[in-house]
Design goal:
Order of helices and strands: HHH
Radius of gyration: 12 Å
Number of strands: 0
Structural class: mainly alpha
Largest sheet: none
Distance between the termini: 32 Å
Oligomer: single chain
Helix content: 55-70%
Strand content: under 5%
C-alpha cells in the first residue's frame, strides 16, 4: 500500500495526527492553528513523496515515526 491510496492516507492521518500534535507541543508549537498548519505540511509532503510502507517500515515502525518527526521538526524550524 502507498499513501496515494485514499483510504490508507486517511488511516495514516488518523493514526498519527494526535501523536504528532503532542510532539509539536513538546517542540514549542503551542498555538493550535500553527500546529494544524505544520501537521498539514507534514502529511502533504508525505503524500507528494508517495512514501510506500513496506513490511520493513510499516506505519507504526520506528523508521516511519522518525520520518514524520523529522519532517515536523523541519517544518517548525522553518517558521
Amino acid at each position: 500500500m502507498t499513501l496515494q491510496d485514499a483510504g490508507f492516507f486517511e488511516y495514516i492521518v488518523t493514526r498519527y495526527e494526535d501523536k504528532l500534535s503532542r510532539y509539536l507541543i513538546r517542540l514549542g508549537v503551542r498555538n493550535k492553528v500553527d500546529r494544524e498548519d505544520v501537521l498539514q505540511e507534514v502529511f502533504l509532503k508525505a503524500l507528494r513523496q508517495g512514501r510506500a510502507f513496506t513490511a520493513s517500515a510499516t506505519p507504526g515502525s520506528r523508521p516511519s515515526r522518525c520520518g514524520y518527526r523529522s519532517e515536523a521538526q523541519a517544518q517548525v524550524a522553518s517558521r
